[in-house]
Amino acid sequence: MKNINKNNILLFSCAVFFICLQFACAQTRETTTNPEEAKMERDRNMADPQWRKDNYIVNRDSAYANPYYALQKLKGGNKRFEEGRSIHPRQDPALIESLAEGQAPFAIIVGCSDSRVSSEALFDQGFGDLFVARTAGQVMAQASYATLEYAYLNLGTKLIVVLGHTSCGAVSAAVKIPADPPGHIVTLINAIKPAALAVKDMEGDEINNAVRQNVINQVNELRALESVLSDAYGAGNLLIVGAVYSLNTGEVEILDETMEDFPPTGYGTKDITGL
Ligand SMILES: [Zn+2]
């Protein structure tokens, strides 16, 4: 009799526990993933000027129309990401479905394939926002050039950001200048080698110095790339800048060396976020 009672109590406790667990899960689902409510909250926030200011929001159409605003939009997104306040915009099913009609990305990112450097995440942008070309060390060749030209000519995207990152494996490999790299890896080494050699005697971290120099070299490479990109850049219609993402802090630093001496442009260059 004693044993039966014990078993009954145990069974009853388990049943109560599972009922509570199910209830808790249902509650969580209801409060966090109701798409209607989430959309209403997003719309409410977006309609509030103070919320937009606090979250460094730049209007998407303005960013698409003007590469200087596009750059400010990226800076704002990265600031949210760095502060742990990402809003994960433009990821709802209705928006994703609407993008089947076409795309108008407001920035082109030439980034590294490194699994820790996802452009959409670190710039806190969504679907249809960024046109991304990724290779190790963001080394470019013919197909990458065509990819960027396509985005400028066919999609109307007017900003290219070359995005390196600290402690890049491809740059580290190039700094070591190995005698006989396997397979096609020599392609990466040869492309990054000029940057590695240029910073050899520079003070500071050799790899991160080479990362920066590699980005600067790649920005110059694209600005001079005939004829589509060089013509567009020279006419002030396309902005090409370089940046480095810190794996440690989450911050994207736009490199000053790539923010000088732009050709005259018809775009407004006003700072609209104060970042
Ligand atoms: Zn890398």
Structure description:
The protein has 275 residues and is of the alpha/beta class. The chain has a single domain, classed as Carbonic anhydrase (Beta-carbonic Anhydrase, Chain A, 3-Layer(aba) Sandwich), CATH 3.40.1050.10. It is 52% helix and 10% strand. The protein is built from twelve helices and five strands. A five-stranded mixed sheet has the order 2-1-3-4-5, sandwiched between helices. About 3% of the residues have low confidence. It binds zinc ion (ZN). The site of zinc ion has 8 residues, from helix 9. Zinc ion (ZN) binds next to helix 9.
Furnish the topology, listing elements before pairings.
Elements: H1 2-32, H2 35-46, H3 49-54, H4 60-65, H5 67-82, H6 93-98, E1 107-111, H7 119-122, E2 130-134, H8 142-155, E3 159-165, H9 169-176, H10 185-198, H11 206-223, H12 228-234, E4 239-245, E5 252-254
Parallel strand pairs: 1-2, 1-3, 3-4
Antiparallel strand pairs: 4-5
Helix pairs in contact: 9-10, 10-11
The structure holds zinc ion.
The site of zinc ion (ZN) has 8 residues, from helix 9.
